[in-house]
Specification:
single chain, alpha/beta, Nucleotidyltransferase, domain 5, 3 domains, 6-stranded mixed beta sheet, 5-stranded mixed beta sheet, 18 strands, elongated, binds guanosine-5'-diphosphate, membrane, ATP-binding, GDP phosphatase activity, glycoprotein, transmembrane helix
């Protein structure tokens, strides 16, 4: 029997399906490995702690950032803030141990918040500002004793304590500027920077970059930075005694010169009346040379709530009469022409927020009307309208509003146009505006002088690229072997 030849068409589909399945598995495996291999590792965080020992109070800030990449802009974030109970550490001059004790509760909170395995490597800084600057001027041994007490307390915690020190006014201004611009991602991207206006209790700072300022005129106001490959020539000035609380002391002292027993203060509400001790008023180097001869123990501080008169008295604590530079702000201090946007924080924010004036598109004339009407409101009515607000703050918003307006417009020369460039801010992307973050970034070298090298493609771009290439490769294989499969499917086979 001759060999039986059977003509049969071979079915190509099983092989095609196998190839497609293998192809899909290869693509999925390739992309999965590529994605997993290059995926950021599960986030581990590092921490840093800064204590802001201000004139009115101390606050503890905890910052965190991803452990594997320290240098990326905007990656350091504030995760916790703890307000220390009681006054600022400079108020403990006569019983320094209490300054150390006052920090314990917030430090214990920090110990709970920072994971135990990170304690030893977590840097801890304490920076003191104008309250301690004043105490140090007045009584340096008392200021040393306060520092010894806080250092003793901080050493009892398992963190990497880097020391407690007084920041200069220039540092306070410059680090506030770094914080604001770092948080707004302006530094790494080399964008035009935002100026910083900080109103504390004992000093106030103004810092900005101006194309009219290269540091040659009044070099003491110049701070230079090289950050992410860009050079910055920053103008900064700190006015000691022109923080909100010390400015009010200056104002009261001024008025007691005319009426040592009872002052009728236009910056306080009608019906306001409070006994103030002279020793309390004159305990600061800002006012100590102005004490009236033969002053009684205390004077009666009453209010008349007259905004225009208040502005006049406020103006009298500034000196606008002399300037040896091309331009000055006040008290003979050089200031270049204002330029760009400004972020105004600390007491600027507290006060303008209370007065509902954080919107700077409100014309200055209207701003004055609002403050004027608040000042004219009788004290009893003010207390009735704001039962939840601390009485001390409530009493001071009239003065503080008038002071802020005068400082900005007469002191720093903001006009009705440039005023709209100010933004009153408390936080930026969840972190408080203030000098602490900039201070820590500087001390931990977390902002590089040069722009860091970045991979040619961002992570998402890399994943998309690998996926597209794998799919193209697969299609190419299918297309190039298509003829072969077609032939297989058409050629009769002899079995
Ligand atoms: N209205 C109001 N004022 C505040 C608050 N916290 C602090 N202040 C006042 O704002 C001013 C500045 O405070 P701060 O920025 O803490 O300054 P520092 O104490 O000198 O560092 C001081 O006169 C404080 O008394 C607040 O929550 N509300």
């Amino acid at each position: 029997m001759s060999a039986q030849r059977e003509m049969k068409e071979k079915n190509p589909w099983p092989v095609t399906i196998i190839i497609i399945v293998i192809g899909v598995i290869v693509i999925v495996a390739l992309v999965t490995v590529a994605v997993l291999q290059n995926m950021p590792l599960s986030q581990k965080y590092k921490y840093g702690i800064v204590l802001d020992a201000g004139s009115s109070h101390t606050a503890l800030y905890i910052y965190e950032w991803p452990a594997e990449k320290d240098n990326n802009t905007g990656r350091v974030q504030q995760t916790h803030v703890c307000k220390v109970q009681g006054p600022g550490i400079s108020s403990y001059a006569s019983e320094p141990w209490k300054a150390g004790e006052s920090l314990m509760a917030c430090m214990q909170e920090a110990q709970q918040r920072v994971p135990g395995k990170r304690h030893l490597e977590t840097p801890l800084y304490l920076g003191a500002t104008a309250g301690m600057r004043l105490l140090n001027m007045e009584n340096s041994s008392a200021s040393d004793a306060v520092f010894r007490a806080v250092e003793r307390s901080l050493h009892t915690f398992p963190f990497n304590f880097q020391g407690a020190r007084i920041l200069s006014g220039q540092e306070e201004g410059a680090f506030g500027w770094v914080t604001v611009n770092y948080l707004a991602d302006r530094l790494e991207q080399g964008l035009e920077t935002t100026g910083a206006l900080d109103l504390g209790g004992a000093s106030t700072q103004i810092s900005f970059v101006s194309s009219n300022y290269d540091g040659s005129e009044s070099p003491s106001n110049s701070v230079t930075f090289r950050l992410y490959g860009n050079n910055y020539n920053l103008y900064t000035n700190s006015f000691l005694c022109y923080g909100k609380d010390q400015a009010m002391k200056l104002l009261l002292a001024q008025q007691t010169l005319l009426a040592p027993k009872t002052i009728v203060d236009p910056c306080f509400h009608p019906g306001y009346s409070e006994a103030v001790s002279y020793s309390g008023l004159y305990d600061s180097p800002c006012v100590s040379n102005r004490k009236p001869q033969g002053a009684p123990e205390a004077f009666n501080h009453t209010g008349s709530g007259n905004f225009l008169q208040c502005q006049d008295v406020v103006k009298s604590i500034f000196n606008f009469t002399y300037c040896k530079y091309s331009h000055c702000s006040f008290n003979g201090v050089f200031q270049p022409l204002l330029q760009g946007h400004f972020g105004a924080f600390s007491a600027y924010y507290f006060v303008m927020d209370f007065l509902n004036l954080t919107d700077t598109s409100i014309p200055l004339t209207k701003v004055k009307e609002v403050i004027s009407s608040y000042c004219a409101t009788p004290w009893d009515e003010v207390k009735r309208q704001h039962p939840g607000v601390k009485v001390k703050y409530l009493a001071e918003y009239c003065f503080a509003g008038a002071y802020i307006l005068t400082l900005l417009t007469e002191g720093y020369n903001f006009t009705s146009d440039s005023y709209t460039q100010i933004e009153f801010i408390k936080k930026i992307k969840g972190s408080d505006a203030g000098w602490t973050l900039g201070y820590m970034l500087n001390l931990t070298n977390m902002i590089p002088a040069e722009a860091p090298d970045s991979p040619p493609l961002p992570y998402a771009g890399y994943v998309s690229f690998v996926t597209v290439m794998a799919v193209l490769l697969f299609v190419l294989v299918i297309v190039s072997t298509r003829r072969f499969w077609l032939r297989c499917s058409k050629r009769p086979q002899i079995v």
